[in-house]
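Can't attach files on this board, so I'm pasting raw text. These are the components:
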Amino acid sequence: MLGEGILKGLGETAKNFAGSFVSKERLTTVQYPEERVAPIENTRDFPFLVYDGDDKMAGLRCVACQICEKECPPKCIYIVKSTDKKPDYVGKPQIYPARFDIDISVCMSCQICVEVCPFEAIKMDTEFELSTTDRFGGLLFDRDHLSKSNEHYHKIHPTEASEVDARLAEEKAKAEAKAKAAAEAAAAKAAAAATAPTAKPVPAKEPGA
Amino acid sequence: MSQSSQLWANPVWTNLDQIFVLLQHWVEGFFPVWLQPAVGTVLGVIAIVAAFPGIFALTTVLERKGLGRMQNRLGPNRVGPFGILQPVADGIKSLTKEDIVPLTADGVVHFLAPVVLVIAVFLGFAVLPVGRNMVLTNLDAGLLFFFAIGASTELSVFMAGWSSRNKYSLLGAMRAVAQMISYEVPLLLSSVVAVMITGSLSTVKIVEAQSGFTGIFPHWYVFTPWGFAGFVLFVIAALAETNRSPFDLPEGESELVAGYFTEYSGFKFALFFLGEYLGMFSIAGFAITLFLGGWGAPLSVLEIIPSWAWFFAKLLCAIFFFIWLRGTLPRLRQDQLMNFAWKFMLPMSLLNLLVAGAWRFLGDGWLRWIVCSAVLLLAYGLLGRVLMRHQRLGARSYRYAD
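---
Top answer:
Structure tokens for the assembled complex are below.
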């Protein structure tokens, strides 16, 4: 019969209309500033720089290699290399970024910087309440603003951060083992060198003898 | 009728029912006699210009809240308690927004279009009886005046679309005009039945003809076979005439941005918005006047409530029904819209004219009820079957794209 579907549809909306006053479970939306839904783990918006330990500058993983700056499609990253060096997480002296700016009004949240970074130094943040009254300065984040602790990273992306930590620990262990082996080799060499002079002078003496 | 006469004998009730009329006369009393008719008219105009935009403001927030509830949301709830001050915020926003006129637009026509729309829509209220003795002008051809004025909204729509010099505006205006002209025919024809039975084009007379009671039930035209059919047809045509969902093709966002008011911003946009809603109120008011007994009470025992309260209560119910439909029905396609107008609405409203004539000449008795109902139901069933037969509902097949 013509019009049957319309009546059925009207019944359905009437049910929803009345039901929304009766049962709170029907309401699917969240009253945002008062209520919040925790972001899902894969949420991402803008990049941040990870640091280890307590000191922002000392623990910064970034070595200012500028790969992210070159790969960034909208060119929103600006890096100035430092002239001096500081030790990285394995203790190796590395250059660090004297300036690291991201213009989040340009950033398109593509995550390419994260994918190309060989040092696990840049990751995606979940902070979204970034509105500001200053659309130029307020949206240009500097090194200090961008640096966030590894604990923050663990909090927002736990699985990913654990993987990264495991990888870094492995690398560190490898580097330490290598350093140890190198040290041992050096020690052995030194020992050999130390023993050699005692042996050497003997034949050296021989010609003189 | 005895109850009415009892009510009329009660001065408190009479004063309450006629409170606005008495107020008008009291203010008129401060002016010289030769000026009094003019003052009375100005007061009536002020009342209309204040009351209906007030209902518009209320409707915008109630519509958003109602639609929200139908979608299991809360709707606006930030400005004021429960969000009731939302229209104030919206009004301030639209007043402070920049008014942009496109560089290539026809400036004068672009400016005039919303003004013409609002004026035309307001003129329609002049013949709308909102209560006992409460009509601005009781024209002998009130209904004709309303439809003539209503048709000029098409002009403003086309002015807006043409002067914007924007393809979306023009396409939207073309759609709107095609739709409004197509549905004007069934709108008029479906209202003619009320005129045929009343024997007058005056809106006041049409309401008075429905004001009696049998037992406790009123003599509304909607409670007769031809009146019911006429009412349904009138409401469908009214929805199309005011570009309400499901007939809101002229402003289909997905294909036309915003239709004929794409290039309007700031307060001109607000005027279009206002005009559209006022058009909806006036046409709903005429549906009430023609078929739902105007300001009459739905049961004789409820006559104690003043007539104007009944009119506005009915108007709010009609608005709620429009919102309900908007929350339920998806938008029609252009060909469906036209097919529906010419293949269903027009034959049904023409048949309804004959049925109303038969009702008039079959005399009192149960025979006319059976004959008229049977004819209308049969026609409805047959037309429905014919229209549905050609619809191949199911998975869509593509000739080339597969």
